[in-house]
Specification:
Elements: H1 8-25, H2 29-36, E1 38-42, E2 45-48, H3 49-63, H4 69-95, H5 102-115, H6 120-129, H7 134-154, H8 163-175, E3 180-190, H9 197-212, H10 217-224, E4 235-240, H11 246-252, E5 260-265, E6 269-280, E7 287-295, H12 303-319, H13 323-333, E8 339-345, H14 351-359, E9 369-371, E10 374-384, H15 390-416, E11 419-421
Antiparallel strand pairs: 1-2, 1-11, 3-4, 3-6, 5-6, 7-8, 7-10, 9-10
Helix pairs in contact: 3-4, 4-7, 4-9, 5-7, 8-15
C-alpha cells in the first residue's frame, strides 16, 4: 500500500497546535483559560491573550530585551495596537480578494532566518527555547505581505509626481549646497485622535526607555513603528537633509552621528530618530561604493547550464533587500570577485556600466549582467558627491507620498472598525 503524504503546511499547522496544547497544559486551568480569553475583538475577529503573549515575547527577543514583568507591561499596549492594525490589514486584503500563500510566508521566514545566519529549523529552535510559537512570526509576516499587496493595488497607481515638485526640492538642495546628506532611521507612532496624544507620547517614551536599556533600534522599529520603513528596520536610507519636513529638520540638523532623539512631535504623530551617519553634499565628482556578486559561467557553454545559472542569479537577486544581505550573499557564494568593491569613481567605469549604476537605487540589486563572461549582480551601497540626482528625488517623493497615503488608509480603517478592547 502506498504511503500517504501530507502537505508540509498541514504538518506545520498540526505541530503548532500541538506545541500550543503542550504549552497550555503546563498552566493551571485558570491560567490556561485566561490565556485563551479575548484581549480585543476587531470586527468580530478575536485577538487572544495567547496572541499578545507570544508577540510580546517575539518583540522582546528580536529587540534584544530581557522580558521582565516591567518590560512586558511597557510593551504590551503597543504590541496590542500593532496586532489590531495587522488584523485590519488582513481584513482589508481579504475584502479586496488579495491572498498571501503559505509559500510566500515560508519564503519570507526563511529570509529572516538567513539574515540571522540560521536555517529555518535553527531559527524555530531559538523561538521554541524562548517559548514562542512559530505562528507568532508567521502571522506577522502574513499581515506585512498582505498590506504590501493592498498598497500596491490601491495606492501606487494613483501617485503622480509633477515636475514642479521635483524642481522645488532641487532648488532647496541647490540653495543648501555645502549642507548634509544623512542616513536616518525612524520609529513612528501615529496619533489618530487628539485625545490619544498623551497615550501615544507615553508609548514613545516607553520605547525610548527600552532603547536606553540596550534595545536594538532596527528591531524595535520592525516590531512597533507604524511607518512603511518598519519593513527595513526603520531605515529611511540616504536622503538630502533638505528633503525632510520642517518639523523633523529642525531636530535633525543639530544631531550628531550615533545620536537618538525623541519623542519628536510631527504633524501626525511621534517619532524617535536615530542618525547613523552624516556627510557633506559635495561637488560634481561622484563616487559609489559597490557590492558585487559573481556567478561563474559554466565552462561547457551549454544553454541549459547558462539557463540554470540565470535562474540562480534571479533567486539571489530576489533575496537582496539591503547591502547587509548583499554582502552576506557575496560572502556565502565564495566566488572570486564577489564582495565589497569599495569606493569607485563613476568616471572610471565604462559608459554602459556608469549609466546603469547612476540609475540604480541605493541598496537595490541590478539585473544579472554579463561581466567578463560571468554573470554578476551589483548593489550601490553608498554615493558621494555628484550632481543633484533628479531621479532619486523623484523616488523619494513617491515614497513620501505613498507613506502618507498608506497611513491615511490605515487610519480610515481604524476609524471605521468596531474594536472592543478587553485587556
Amino acid at each position: 500500500m502506498p504511503t500517504k503524504r501530507f502537505p508540509k503546511g498541514l504538518l506545520r499547522a498540526v505541530a503548532t497546535c500541538l506545541v500550543a496544547a503542550i504549552w497550555l497544559s503546563g498552566l493551571s486551568a485558570a491560567r490556561a483559560q485566561d490565556t485563551l480569553r479575548a484581549v480585543a475583538v476587531v470586527n468580530d475577529e478575536v485577538i487572544s491573550m495567547l496572541d499578545l503573549v507570544m508577540r510580546t515575547r517575539l518583540a522582546a527577543l528580536s529587540s534584544g530585551l530581557q522580558l521582565t514583568n516591567e518590560t512586558q507591561a511597557r510593551l504590551q499596549q503597543q504590541v496590542l495596537r500593532r496586532l489590531i492594525d495587522e488584523e485590519l490589514e488582513l481584513q482589508e486584503a481579504k475584502r479586496l480578494e488579495l491572498t498571501v500563500s503559505d509559500q510566500e510566508v515560508a519564503a519570507m521566514v526563511e529570509e529572516i532566518a538567513k539574515r540571522n545566519n540560521m536555517s529555518r529549523d535553527q531559527f524555530e529552535s531559538v523561538l521554541a527555547r524562548n517559548q514562542i510559537l512559530p505562528s507568532a512570526l508567521e502571522n506577522q509576516v502574513k499581515a506585512e505581505l498582505a498590506w504590501r499587496k493592498v498598497v500596491k493595488v490601491r495606492l501606487v497607481p494613483s501617485i503622480v509626481i509633477a515636475d514642479e515638485e521635483i524642481d522645488e526640492v532641487m532648488a532647496r538642495i541647490e540653495a543648501g549646497r555645502g549642507g548634509s546628506e544623512i542616513n536616518l532611521f525612524e520609529i513612528y507612532l501615529e496619533v489618530d485622535d487628539a485625545q490619544m496624544d498623551e497615550d501615544v507620547r507615553r508609548a514613545t517614551i516607553n520605547l525610548l526607555d527600552e532603547l536606553r536599556g540596550g534595545g536594538n533600534f532596527s528591531a524595535l522599529a520592525s516590531q512597533f513603528s507604524q511607518s512603511a520603513t518598519a519593513a527595513k528596520g526603520g531605515n529611511m536610507g540616504w536622503i538630502e537633509e533638505a528633503q525632510l519636513p520642517e518639523d523633523l529638520l529642525s531636530v535633525v540638523r543639530d544631531m550628531k552621528p550615533g545620536e537618538v532623539r525623541g519623542p519628536v512631535r510631527g504633524l501626525t504623530g511621534y517619532y524617535i530618530l536615530y542618525l547613523r551617519d552624516r556627510k557633506p553634499i559635495m561637488g560634481d565628482s561622484e563616487a559609489v561604493r559597490l557590492t558585487q556578486i559573481v556567478l561563474k559561467a559554466p565552462t561547457d557553454g551549454q544553454d541549459a547550464g547558462r539557463a540554470a545559472l540565470m535562474s540562480q542569479a534571479e533567486d539571489m537577486r530576489a533575496r537582496i533587500d539591503s547591502c547587509k544581505t548583499a554582502d552576506q550573499i557575496a560572502k556565502d557564494s565564495g566566488a572570486p570577485g564577489s564582495g565589497d568593491l569599495g569606493m569607485m569613481k563613476l568616471s572610471d567605469l565604462s559608459p554602459a556600466l556608469k549609466n546603469m549604476v547612476q540609475a540604480l537605487p541605493l541598496e537595490q540589486p541590478s539585473e544579472p549582467m554579463n561581466i567578463g563572461g560571468n554573470l554578476a549582480i551589483l548593489v550601490v551601497c553608498e554615493r558621494e558627491g555628484g550632481t543633484i540626482d533628479r531621479e532619486r528625488i523623484h523616488r523619494n517623493l513617491i515614497a513620501q507620498r505613498l507613506e502618507t497615503l498608506a497611513r491615511r488608509y490605515l487610519r480610515d480603517l481604524r476609524r471605521k472598525a468596531n474594536v472592543d478592547l478587553r485587556l
